[in-house]
Amino acid sequence: MKEHYSLPSRWLAGKSGYQVLDYVWWALMALTLASAWLAESAEPSLVVTLFVAVTIGLKGRLVVDRFMELKNAHQGIRFAMNLYFYLLPLVVVLVYLFPEFLADLTKLSR
Amino acid sequence: MSTVPIGSSDFPLQNSEALAVPADNRVPGNGAIWVGIFAEMSEFALMFLVYFLAKVHYPEFFDQGPLQLNTTAGVLNTLALLTSSYFVAKAMQSVRMGYNQRAIRWLWGTVAAAVFYLLVKAWEYQWNSQQGIEVDTNLFFTVYYYMTFNHFLHVFWGGGAILWAIWRLKSGYYTADSHEGMEAIASYWHMIDLVWIIIFPLLYVLR
User: Choosing a second label site near A33 at 20 to 30 A (CA), which of A16, A56, A107, B13?
Assistant: First the structure.
């Protein structure tokens, strides 16, 4: 059966795990500085919220797979850790899109 | 800990690029550390839930709060923690390649990054106080202090665990073939980093 690899996986193929960590670190630094720039300059908007949500997901996945070395580890552990970084960005976006609805849903008295 | 030791007994280490690839489907460290990690992640998940609930009920506080915080301190802390995690990952791979002295140097880098984080955070709390920001200023800052101080404590004792790993490495306890304890400590440290990856945008970026 033909195996499919994502673009980053293909690009990283042939590099040692020790080397790959350097690229991951640079990516994490860049994503953090981009978020910092947003915090200082951009007004709240859907685009900013989406960017933040995707950044949380990407950084989380990079640390889970590459630093924590869960990429080839126990599937249950990897799934649970990655799930955290799918669900949390989703909640970030939902809270931005439907704040009144969620506030109403979580009121103690009606 | 099971590894596929390319560069171990069957393949003696002969150069610095020798590799040790962790075996597939393994549990990094040991089962107990993952119980701890998931317990900690659940604890922080509850804090994030409180953050989101407070945000939808008091949007004005959560719109203005991030603007009042010191973004530079938040960014420096993020860079420090991500770098500390990178150092731990480098140390882990160094041990697998049999380079314990190199691993020790990477772990001292982690300790330095952790101390830097703690100092920046302490300075940030003092700076907040000078701006009139306290725990009870409003709900945003209550959540901010509860979340960040809790995380601060984790960095403190996580740093202690890293010092323990350094001592064990120096004692020759960890080898290329046997380093379960160090891997457990490394996994725990990465968890601390992961939590900050979420805290930073929630408190300093999102409005």
Answer: A16
B71/A39 CB distance under 8 A = yes
Is ipTM beyond 0.90? Answer: no
Q: Do B22 and A69 touch (CB under 8 A)?
A: yes
Q: Work out the average pLDDT over B83-99.
A: 96
Q: How many helices (H) and strands (E) does chain B have?
A: 6, 2
Residue listed under structure tokens 């910092």: A36
- HSE-CB at B37 with a 13 A cutoff on CA atoms is 28
What pLDDT does A12 receive? 59
- What is the overall mean pLDDT for chain A? 87
CB-CB neighbors (< 8 A) of A37 in chain B: none
Distances, alpha carbon B2 to alpha carbons A30, B20, B88, in Å: 34, 11, 19
**Amino acid present at A46:** L
Find how far residue A105's CA is from the centre of its chain: 27
CATH fold of B30-205 reads Four Helix Bundle (Hemerythrin (Met), subunit A) (1.20.120)
